[in-house]
Each structure stands twice: as structure tokens, then as C-alpha cells.
Amino acid sequence: MLKLKNISVSYKDKVVLDNLSLTAESGEIIGLVAPNGTGKTTLFHVISNFLKPNNGTVIFHDKLQYKTERNEIAIHKQLTTFPEQRDLFEELSGIDHMKLYANMWKGSTGNVQKICKQLHMEGYVKKKVKTYSLGMRQRLCFAMVAAADTPVMLMDELMNGLDVANVALISEYLMEMKKEGKLIFVASHLLSNLDLYADRVLYLKDGNIIHQQDFSRADEKFIKIDLSSEEYGALKESLPEDHLYIANHLCCIPLAKLDEAEKNAWITRLSSYEDKELTIGPLGTAEYYEKYYHEDSKL
Amino acid sequence: MFRKFSLFEIKLLLRNRKSAFIALFLLLFFPLFFMYYSQEEPETLTEQKRAETQASYAIFYHLDQKRHDMPEVAEVYDYHTQIQSLLGMQVWNIGSGKDGEQYVEDGLEINQLRLKVHELGNEGIPDYLIIPEEEILKENALLEYIKQNDLPIDSESFMTNNYFADAFAMVSGLVFLVIMLISGNELLVYELKHQSVMRGLPLAFMRKVTSKIMVYGIFIYLLLLLGFSIGSLYLSSKMEGNEFSFPILIYQNEEYTAISASQYLLYLFLGMALVIILLLLLSILLNMLFKNAFANILVGLGIYLLPDIAMAAGFNWNFLHPVKFIDMSKVLSGELAVELENSFIDYWNAMAVLGGLSLLLIGVIYAINKINYQRVPKDMPLEKTF
């Protein structure tokens, strides 16, 4: 459905995206993870043609490219981007905003009431935006994209300013949209939340995707335990070569190459650390994040 | 999509305080103007004619001193004797004589004699007592119209027509330009403040521009019409006149012609419609170029004042004159043609030029947008603004 080919974006000596390629299909939720200023928003801007990259092409449905305004409109009819809270019209109501998006994309406002109800917005949606809290505004931004109901949605900083209940509400809504066959990109700093609904999580670093975490793959399981540097040092020599020691505290032994006897041996051995929690499972988004960006966060 | 977007633009327009102030100004201007001017006691036709007669006596004094020595002055003196006599008859005919038809006939004859005096170079008449040729031609056109349409000369409708012309003289030109520039200064720029909401809308740029011009244009135009209608209603309640068949003078084909007030208003409102479209197109272009609301006002005013600045510096460049055509009242009255010393400037010529300028602006806006899509990024990525 969407293909990015060799996208490069650079400003003088700063490279933001470096020859990035990506393919995405409908019915997928793709998480995008990276620290601030590493190109998440730039990537969304390139996908929506708000930014024409120095190199590379964006292709929709194997043929549509941003070459003319006519093409851009054809693509934009299938794509919405998540608005920023500060860009909302303070003098208009939430319903005005939702109607704009519903009208411009769907051509009718028939779904607006239903969305308000699903997102528990009925109490405030008719009031002017200037009276809204951060969380209310964020829910409105999501409701606008939901009202547009396009096949592709780009959601940058989706969960910003939301409390736990609203994060759960929107996560649930996202899963429903996935079932309807939408392709949704979500950039979020709420890492563990991505594990709930994302099919893939892409980790951006140095302008490219350095890792793609695929939740549909079951073979990437690990024995995981928190170890201090000293404890890890004592154990290091005997650990398998492909083990990971993430952010100087999390030791992960991949299960894929171990036979049953080796698995049991490692579980027994690591169980001796009585005050440490031993878990078995795939690495979560937060753990990968620590793996790739731990050193950067110290800078 | 276009209709839905236009409805959203209307919603924004109606919620905007700036629009409310503009609406208030346009609605109140005409009623307040008419209210103020109708308080003044206007000079009656009899008083005007008496003043003319007095001035004519003064001319005699100067002519009498020279006519014995200079034959040309003697000829002027003869003509002036006839003028003086006819002026006296006019005072009689609008007073006790009550013969409007004769008043008009005499007036036409006076004008012919005055033109002959002009041909003789106004010999012997001091400059301050010379009636300018334009004034004679204007008066002649007015009297011809009255004669052809058999209108009563003492109607208050003449007065109300003057109020119309004066009111538009005040509002058109600089004042209207400022209103339009303020009104249009954020046509596109406001989208920058709401970029993430507005930038991805699936609507072609030119359709968006058309929608904005349509919404803002109709808004201003309706207010102008409404304000004028309220003002006219007030005038008709105050005065007996207000018949739209009475004449107003306009400058056309290098001469002055009297047309009915209704035709004058039709020309004027048609002209104002074109001026509104032109200024909104200009605002769109300035928004695209400068992306700043204040720049729209400052640059717009700068362009309007360019011909004045050039003239003050001693250059009367014809190519700058079209900038001033937006002052429809001055175009119609011929004042602009006199001011810029350009007899080409009349209503239809101005309309053709303004129409051409509007098309040119549309072409430039279209081309800039097209170029933005064809630009290839080199060292830097290119950002889409609107």
C-alpha cells in the first residue's frame, strides 16, 4: 500500500533521514520509536509531502507519487495526519473541527456523533476549544483523524497529555481501526503501550531504521534478568555469544539456539539470584529502546 | 468538497473579531455620513446663481477697465454682457418666474458663451474669476440631461445624489484599500497558525483560493450594499428626494456625461466588485510571497502610494496609473484623469485594466503554485507552506 524508496533528508551538514526505505500494508499499525529530534516527524512530513525530500520517492498503491498537485490530492484523500494541539482553532468547538475533517474526507458528518460517544467527548465537544484541557485537546485531535476515516493515518505524539484511562481508550480504538484495514503509523514515547497494538515497531537512528521489531514473530524469545555490572562481569564468559546486555542492567539470553537442556541449565543457574526477577519472552519496546538509545541518553 | 471548505471559511470569518469590526465600519459608514451631512444647510440653487451673478459683476469691473484699449477684451466684454443678462434671467426663472425649462435653456446658452470666452483666452479676466472649462462642460452635461429627461430643477434629488457621490468619494480609494488589506491580510497566513490542521486538506490550492476570495468578497460586498441601503433609507426619510432617475456626472470618452443616479450606482457597485476581487487576489499573492499579515498591509499601501511618490519626485509614469484605478469614485468623476493628467482614465477603460490586472494576478498565483510542485530539492528539502 505504501512504499518509501531511498528517502534522504538533509539540511546542510545535518542528515535527518539517510536513504531510508520502508514498505507498509493496510491493516497494520506501525510504531515509530526514537528520541526527540531523530526524524520521526520528518518521516511523517515526507510521507504526507509536507516536506519534499532531497532524494527518494513515496509510492501509494504501487503507482501514485507526489509528482503533481493532482496526485497529491489523490493521495491526501486517502491520508490524514494527526493535528497538533497548538494548531487547533481556539474560537471553534470540537465538533466544528471534527466536522471539518469528516466533511473534507468522508464528505459527510454522519460518523461524528458516534466517535464523540466512543471517545467520551459528549460532555465538552460543543464547547470552544479554548476551554479544553491538554487531554481533551489530544482526544479531539484523535477524534478528527477518526472522523476523516482515511485508509492511511499518521499519528505523531499520539498519547501526549493523556491519562491512563484515555490511553487505554485510544489504544482500544486503534485496534478497532486496524481491524477495519487501516494502515496506521504511531509515533509515541509511551513505549510499553505500543506493545499492545503495534504489529511492528521501527527504531530510527542516524537517519535510518536500525531495527524492526515484529510482534508477529514468535522465535525472538529471551531469558531476561536484571544484573549489575559486577554480576554480569562474573557471568559474561559463560554466556552465549549472541546474548544482549542492555543499558548496563538487563541480561538477555536468546532461546532460539538453545536446546531444552541448555534452557533448563540457564534457568536454574539464573534462579540463584534470589532477589532478581527472571522472565522469559520477547524483548519489549522499552527494552529495545534502552538497547538502541541508552548510550545516546547519556550524551 | 469546495462547498464544505467554503462553509468552514464562512464559519471562521464569522467567528473572527476583525471581521466584526470591518462589518461594523461598513454598516455604519453610510448612515453616519448621511446623518452628518444632512445636518448641514446646503446652498440652494437660487443662492448658487446669485453668487455666480456677483462673481460676474466682479468680472465686469476688470473687463471695463481694459476694453477700450484692447479689442479682444471688448469681444469678451460683449459675451459677458450676454452671460450676465442670462444669469439674471436664471435667477428670475427659478424664483418668481417658475420656468424650469427656460432656466435650462438659458444655462445651456451661458455655457456656450463661456466656452467662447475660453476660446478667446479669457482676455481681461483675472485667473481667480475664470470658470474652468471642465466645470462648464460638467454643468452643460447636467443641463442637457435635465432637458432630455424633462426633470424639475428644484428637486432635492440633486442633493441626495451629491450625498451619494460624496460618500463614495470618501470611502473609495485609500479607505477602502485599507479595509480590504486588513480584511485579506490573513487569507492564507492564518493557515500557518493552524498548519497541522489545514495543510493536508485534500483540496487543490486554486480551489482553496477561489473559495476564500468568494467568501471574503461576498462578505465585504454585501456589507457595502447593506450599509449603503441603510444610509439611503435614512436619507429618503430625511429628504423628499432620493429618486434614482436624477443625474450624476461622470467622465467618459474624454468628456463629461450625465447619467442617472441608478446607472451611476450600478457602475459604482460593479466597479467596487471588481476592485474587491482584485484586492483579494493581491492579498493572496502578498500572503504567498511574504507569509506575514503586516507585510500584506504595508506592501499593499506602498504599491497604492507609488504613483503619488513618483509624481512628487517629478515622474508621471503612465504604467503606474492603473494602481489608482481602484478609486472608482475618482475614476467615475474624472477627478483621477485630471489628477494624473491622463485623459484615458474613464470608467470602462479602468474596468478593462482592472479586469486585466485581476487575470494577471490569477496567472501569477497559479504559476507560483505550479512552480512549487515542480521545484526539485537540491541542498535542502523543500517544505510545503500552504
TrEMBL record, chain A:
CDD domains: ABC_DR_subfamily_A (cd03230). GO terms for molecular function: ATP binding; ATP hydrolysis activity. SUPFAM superfamilies: P-loop containing nucleoside triphosphate hydrolases. PANTHER family: SKFA PEPTIDE EXPORT ATP-BINDING PROTEIN SKFE. InterPro entries: AAA+_ATPase, ABC_transporter-like_ATP-bd, ABC_transporter-like_CS, P-loop_NTPase. Keywords: ATP-binding, Nucleotide-binding. The keyword ATP-binding applies. It comes from the Bacteria. The keyword Nucleotide-binding applies. Residues 2-231 form the ABC transporter domain. This is Multidrug ABC transporter ATP-binding protein.
UniProtKB/TrEMBL annotation, chain B:
Keywords: Membrane, Transmembrane, Transmembrane helix. It comes from the Bacteria. The keyword DNA-binding does not apply. The keyword Acyltransferase does not apply. The chain crosses the membrane at residues 20-37, 167-192, 213-235, 264-286, 293-315, 347-368. This is ABC transporter permease. It comes from Oceanobacillus sojae.
